[in-house]
Amino acid sequence: MTNSAPSIAVVGAGPSGFYAVDALTRARPDARIDIIDRLPTPFGLARYGVAPDHQGTKGVTRQFDRLLAKPGVRFIGGVELGRDVSLDELRTTYDAVLIATGCGRDRKLGIPGEDLAGVMGSMRFVDWFNAHPDAVDLTATIAEARHVAVIGNGNVAIDVARVFAKTADEMAKSDIDPRAQAAIAAMPLETVTLYGRRGPAEASFTINELNEMGRLARAVALVDAAHVTDVTAPDSDPTPERLRKQKNIEAFRGFSANAPGAKPVALGFRFHRAPLVLGGENGRVVSINFADGSYAPADLVITCIGYDAILAEGLPVERGRVANDEGRVTGLPGVYVVGWARRGPSGTIPTNRADSFAVAERLVADLAPSSKKGPDGLDALLTARGVATIDTAGWQRIDKTESETGAREGRPRIKLATWQALRASARSAALP
Ligand code: NAP
Known about the structure:
The protein is built from 15 helices and 20 strands. The chain has 432 residues and is an alpha/beta fold. A six-stranded parallel beta sheet has the order 6-14-7-8-10-9. The chain has a five-stranded parallel beta sheet with strand order 3-2-1-4-20, with helices on both faces.
């Protein structure tokens, strides 16, 4: 079969995948594009990663929804690469395949005690408070915790610490899972401490994130004054990165003047603390020993130290990512990769936009006249296998249900938290 309109499968409906679709539809408005995701809902980390109290960052999803309304663009949820369809089958069915599956696994610290109860990677915790349908309920795990240790000084670490430190009132306009919020509010929390293995200048927080930490209702931000003297004085013509660091140091200096005990929860920033051993009692974490010989109590430890990719069979792997040359997957003509699956877990949503645009441009330049079945071929294959998919209309039903439930509580949405609820909502009565 030949068709002048190219067919493209985008695997992964997160920001990187959608930005690629944006570029592809601009360059080839005639393209037939299927966005495949294993989840019943689109938007990946914009839905399940971005902190629930930072709704502004989630605003990109409105743009992605508009892409789903474009002719020729379909969302096909509930389809997992490697389980429901193989990479070879996608290559046979579409003129081009673009992998945008991100990173799906927490990195490990690799130190003794990491398997104790009360120790978990950030993805596990973030999935739970963001109502991911695969999340494990952590209510019992956090219920007795007084001392929360957050390992890492990246943006995820500060998101996690803030979600613990904020009150239910401060989260009222967020789309956090209400059950997770209730469980956090019920903790006998005394300290939330972020541990960086390097100094304050190396922390990748933004000044807005730090300022927010300085204004919390029940938590007082604290820094050891000794750690904010080790930074050079402001220079007169700083680079943006140096300026960010200088502003951060000023914020930390302000925190160092705060009085411990000023508010019920101590929100500590501790630097030069590389975890060495996690200590346990009765199988549960109780402490952290650091490389400098110091020690801290910790009955809940969330590691926020980055992620690794989970890659489907058939994709060449290099340093935990898809092996590629500027987005062209090594040894697989017609297959491309973008975002964290290509570069590793770095960069913000705008960084991934630029990356996806550049790779999409290469994909379009490589396209030969179409010779594949495209969407019809996938439909036939999935129907024959009995795979129950969720289409754009199904997602719109889920979206409507969640937004309406949220609106009744003054929230942007309350997410349906199980596969069953999501699938049922996707199948519910047609939209008006
Ligand atoms: P990240 O920015 O790479 O931070 C990882 C942190 O873990 C670093 O502080 C790192 O320390 C530390 N670390 C790594 N291995 C460690 C070890 N063995 N022991 C102790 N500490 C260790 O990763 P992330 O916070 O997961 O964020 C991932 C990406 O998402 C980033 O690009 C981030 O900007 C983005 N993101 C952005 C936002 C936002 O824009 N608001 C929000 C969330 C995430 P070193 O620096 O010493 O290596």
